[in-house]
Design brief:
The protein is of the alpha/beta class. It contains 24 helices and 12 strands. The strands form 2 sheets. The chain has an 8-stranded mixed β-sheet with strand order 5-12-11-6-10-7-9-8, with helices on both faces. Helix 5 crosses helix 8, helix 8 packs across helix 12 and helix 9 runs antiparallel to helix 12. The two termini are 46 Å apart.
Length: 741
């Protein structure tokens, strides 16, 4: 160092401090309660747009190529009407027309349309076993040999119709019932439109023929069964009639039909009729007796004169009317005459006479009601006795005729069954000759003019939709799996530290300038402005007392801590009369001497080991004004021990008087103790993380290590942010890049 430089350094020792030591920083709390906004999702899609675009192009390209390479398929449809009941041609019902649930019946018919039996009929009728589409000729010899072997074993009924051919045929048949109708669409798919129509029509015709044949076969089986049952029933009828006649002759029971007359039948009818009449009379007598008994009990109450019978008696009503008239006259006369007056005496005697008549008439009415009750009770008992006698006679007759009636019913039942079987046998013979079917072809299949598969516009549209939504889903899934820090929100919410600023990604191919001192070489670039924003944040963050000694570190390697250290230091030199020195404390992998092409023989390691003093060429000047450098020096075997020595504290104290700001570039935090030691001698720590590279867990661990040694963390610089996906755009970019303005 020259004498002039030593003089300036000594003069700086007496210079007042323009930037006193900053006070400790408050603890930063992450903002909580913020909900994710739609713009957050749009930002994710912008950042992962190439995943969406690549997935969309891959899906659309694959589907489009597959659609155009696929051989077209044609579908021909025949409409069949299936009625539940057979046509009612005869006056009687068909012998095989059994009751069945409608849903089960139609489901059965749909299964028949795709049955192997119907498929075999259509294949045989159209000779489809020789069609190259359904039965390729490449393996004809093998198939014929296999079919011959199966035929010898009895496994195949028809030569040439293999199970594989039937399965292929059934797979091309589609049965579609029309809702709320008895119609069903049956379609067949083929590469040949004419073959599709021909097979569809053949399925309808064969289905009707199979239905008629099934009905005819069932009718013949029923006829055979009826003939056998008729012979058995005839013998049973004869046996039942013989047993009935023998029992009647043995017990002397003679019963005639209702239209004939006979002793036994008359006796039975008379007893039954008489018993019915007696039952009716007993019911009427009981009702009458109950009524009489109610009147009698009412008359025997405490005040018989007020009973309904007495009150409604005509004579009593007349006497009461006369009594009321004389009594009223007597009361009126009593106001004029005394009771012993002759006229008054005469009226009083008339009143007494009327009372006696009323009492006499009341007793007569009571006696009459009693007699009526006794007569009704006697009549009821007599009728009940007569009915009991009649019951015994009816029971005796029933006991004698029980067995007779059993035998008679058996004979009648057998006779009815015999007549019914005979009638059905005759009807079966007639219905067997009918060929009517409850299945009709409503619309025959026509030759299709256009293929139904592949539907090229639909496939391409669906591929666009699937590719777009699949790409979006894949983008969000990739975002979910990506645990790196990408935005300032991640810094605030995940690391729980304040973001100091964003540094956009630097592309070396677009410029020949070194990124390490881009703030000096290209001061109008977005990166230079980003570092100036970081400088402003540091200077204004503590109200006029910014930190002077700052350490720059990162959780891991290759995250841009050295670049951030240099550019931040350069940005600080733009302050009025501010001198900045940067110390390369990364004595394991130093870089500053290579970047600025300086001699590294003397450096931090030689000073800490006591071989060099502060004024012995330790501080090296650079081309940038007010910007000095202390290189790392030769790599020592024990960097941590050197940094923890008192010499490092003396170095900071010596530089504190000479420079406005001291920037210390240290190794990564994880796995190395050097930055934790250096943080004890600084006013604050700047942690650098790389967008899209630094895992969140790594950054959290680095923060915990720094907090564990009570280091003051100023914030986080988010480095290498993709500008195209940034929500926080730098509008100054458009201002500085337009040089014509």
């Amino acid at each position: 160092m020259t004498e002039e430089n030593k003089y300036e350094q000594d003069k700086a020792l007496d210079k007042p401090r323009q930037y006193p030591l900053a006070s400790p920083y408050p603890i930063y709390y992450s903002p909580e309660g913020e909900e994710e906004h739609l713009k957050d999702y749009l930002h994710i899609l912008l950042r992962r747009k190439w995943i969406v675009i690549t997935f969309l192009i891959a899906i659309v390209t694959t589907v489009t190529i597959g659609t155009f390479l696929k051989e077209p398929l044609y579908k021909s449809v025949i409409t069949i009407k299936i009625d539940k009941e057979n046509p009612n041609i005869l006056a009687f019902k068909d012998v095989v027309n059994l009751e069945r649930a409608e849903e089960d019946y139609y489901q059965t018919q749909y299964k028949i349309l795709k049955s192997r039996n119907l498929a075999k009929r259509v294949i045989r009728s159209l000779h489809l076993n020789t069609n190259p589409e359904l039965s390729p000729g490449a393996n004809n010899q093998t198939k014929q040999a296999s079919a011959s072997a199966l035929s010898k074993q009895g496994l195949l009924e028809d030569d040439g119709i293999t199970p594989g051919l039937i399965d292929t045929f059934i797979s091309r048949v589609e049965v579609t019932p029309l809702q709320r109708s008895r119609l069903v669409n049956v379609s067949f798919t083929s590469h040949d439109p004419e073959l599709a129509a021909k097979v569809a029509n053949a399925i309808g015709e064969s289905f009707i023929d199979l239905n008629i044949e099934s009905k005819f076969e069932a009718t013949n089986q029923a006829k055979t069964w009826l003939e056998k049952q008729l012979d058995d029933m005839k013998a049973k009828v004869e046996e039942a009639e013989e047993a009935l006649n023998a029992y009647a002759a043995k017990n002397g029971i003679i019963f005639l039909d209702k239209d004939d007359t006979g002793k036994g039948s008359d006796n039975q009818n008379l007893i039954t009729k008489k018993l019915s009449e007696l039952s009716t009379d007993v019911t009427a007598a009981t009702a009458e007796r109950i009524g009489k008994e109610a009147l009698y009990r009412d008359m025997n109450s405490a005040d018989p004169e007020n009973s309904s019978v007495v009150m409604n008696n005509p004579l009593m009503m007349e006497l009461k009317k006369t009594y009321a008239s004389i009594d009223s006259e007597y009361n009126q006369m009593l106001k004029i005459y005394k009771p012993d007056y002759p006229k008054m005496v005469r009226l009083h005697e008339q009143i007494n006479q009327i009372k006696k008549k009323m009492d006499t008439e009341t007793r007569k009415i009571i006696s009459s009601v009693k007699k009526d009750y006794e007569v009704a009770l006697k009549r009821e008992n007599q009728l009940k006795a007569a009915m009991n006698v009649q019951k015994k006679e009816a029971l005796d007759l029933n006991e004698r005729s029980v067995q007779y009636q059993i035998l008679k019913r058996e004979a009648d039942t057998n006779k009815e069954l015999y007549n019914g079987l005979l009638q059905r046998l005759k009807e079966t013979g007639v219905s067997a000759s009918l060929t009517a079917s409850n299945i009709q072809v409503l619309d025959r299949a026509e030759v299709p003019k256009k293929p139904f598969k592949p539907n090229r516009p639909l496939n391409i549209m669906l591929s666009l939709i699937a590719g777009l939504f699949g790409g979006i889903g894949l983008a969000f899934f990739t975002e979910y799996l990506d645990n790196t820090i990408k935005t300032p929100d991640d810094v605030e919410k995940k690391i729980v530290l304040p973001p100091l600023g964003l540094v956009p990604n630097y592309s070396a191919g677009k410029s020949n300038l070194a990124v390490e001192y881009i703030s000096h070489s290209d001061s109008k670039s977005p990166m230079a402005e980003a570092y100036r924003s970081i400088r402003t944040f540091l200077l204004l963050s503590s109200g006029g007392k910014p930190p002077r000694v700052m350490m720059v570190t990162s959780p891991e390697r290759d995250e841009g801590k050295t670049t951030t250290s240099i550019n931040t230091a350069i940005s600080l030199t733009t302050q009025a009369d501010a001198k900045v020195v940067i110390i390369d404390a990364d004595m394991r992998k130093p870089r500053l001497h290579n970047i600025f092409e300086l001699d590294n023989a003397k450096g931090l390691s030689t000073f800490l080991s006591g071989n060099v003093e502060l004024g012995d060429g330790l501080i090296k000047s650079s081309e940038i004004e007010n910007f000095d450098i202390i290189t790392a020096g030769p790599i020592p075997p024990n960097p941590a021990e050197l940094l923890s020595s008192y010499r490092f504290r003396e170095l900071i104290q010596g530089l504190y008087s000479l420079y406005s700001f001291i920037i210390v570039d240290t190794p990564p935090i994880l796995g190395i103790a050097d930055p934790l030691i250096v943080s004890q001698y600084t006013d604050g720590v700047i942690m650098v993380v790389r967008s899209g590279k630094t895992p969140k867990e790594t950054a959290k661990e680095a923060r915990k290590l720094l907090e564990g040694v009570n280091a003051k963390i100023l914030g986080v610089v988010l480095n290498s942010v993709d500008q195209s996906a940034m929500r926080y755009s730098y509008y100054y970019k458009y201002y500085y890049t337009d040089e014509k303005k």
